[in-house]
Design a protein that fits this description.
Elements: E1 20-24, H1 26-35, H2 52-56, H3 67-77, E2 81-90, E3 96-106, E4 109-115, E5 120-126, H4 130-138, E6 151-154, H5 155-166, H6 170-179, H7 184-195, E7 199-206, E8 213-221, E9 224-235, E10 238-248, H8 252-264
Antiparallel strand pairs: 1-5, 2-3, 2-7, 3-4, 4-5, 6-10, 7-8, 8-9, 9-10
Length: 266
């Protein structure tokens, strides 16, 4: 089982004196990975030869990668646990902004690659600093706190309401609510998940060794992040797929991802 340490950082070794972050153009990162014989989270289709000068500035005097960079690429290529993060936010002008990150964990070390569509950031550290990195990814700006009860919705209802709202079919909304009755307050909150959402965050946690997968799914509303947590409820003899919708903070992402990492890891 993978154990993820989210305690305060220790100061015992060279790797603990990190973290490091290096902002690079994507072709440069791809050339670095080629030098390290490392795999990146995306297919490398072309290599820009014009990046040689920039690349040399990251090599040592013998034109080799520094040891800590080699260590970072080794974790990236052969992780015990992989976390793929995807964040989409709707801007005020209606366009979408997207950020993606790939976190790889092995033997107490973490290597991260992230991008918002332009340059790429490569980072590496001890896993005690991983919580801060996950919180950083999920921190998107101020919210407007409101008191709202947790919702517990049938998965069928949650998906069906989304489709009905997208198609502007109030008759489908009424039909779904007739099948899955909610209180007026719950109905307003459930529909609002689809009409007021400003973005979403998904974290997919997997292990190349065990082939097990788990995921975290959040919605961004004006009042902040809402987690969509699946569970199964038994009603009579039939299991019903349910979703709990509840408030979370950016700092909660680390705990959710760490829990899944321990479940899926070797």
């Amino acid at each position: 089982m993978t154990v993820v340490d989210l305690r305060e950082p220790r100061e015992q070794s060279r790797i603990d004196r990190l973290p490091r972050r290096v902002r690079l153009r994507r072709p440069v990162l791809e050339r670095l990975a080629e030098h390290a014989s490392a795999r990146l989270p995306w297919p490398v289709l072309t290599t820009d030869p014009a990046d040689d000068d920039e690349l040399r500035g990251l090599l040592d005097a013998t034109l080799r990668l520094p040891a800590e960079l080699l260590d970072a690429f080794a974790v990236l290529s052969a992780p015990g646990v992989a976390v793929d993060l995807d964040l989409v936010l709707r801007r005020r002008d209606g366009r979408e902004a997207r950020a993606r990150a790939w976190h790889r964990l092995r033997d107490g070390r973490v290597t991260t690659v992230s991008t918002a569509g332009g340059d790429v950031e490569l980072g590496w550290s001890d896993d005690t600093r991983w919580a801060a990195e996950l919180t950083r990814f999920a921190t998107v700006g101020p919210a407007q706190p409101q008191r709202r009860p947790d919702l517990r919705l049938p998965h069928e209802l949650l998906l069906g309401l989304g489709e009905a709202v997208r198609r502007d079919r109030s008759d489908l909304v009424h039909a779904l609510l007739a099948r899955h009755p909610l209180s007026p307050e719950e109905t307003t909150a459930a529909v609002r998940l689809h009409t007021a959402a400003q973005g979403r965050l998904q974290a997919v946690v997997s292990s190349p060794d065990t082939h097990r997968v788990g995921w975290v799914s959040w919605l961004r509303l004006p009042e902040g992040w809402l987690a969509l947590t699946p569970y199964v409820e038994r009603r009579g003899a039939a299991p019903i797929a349910m979703v709990r919708v509840h408030r979370v903070e950016a700092t909660h992402l680390a705990g959710e991802v760490a829990r899944l990492a321990m479940e899926v890891g070797p």
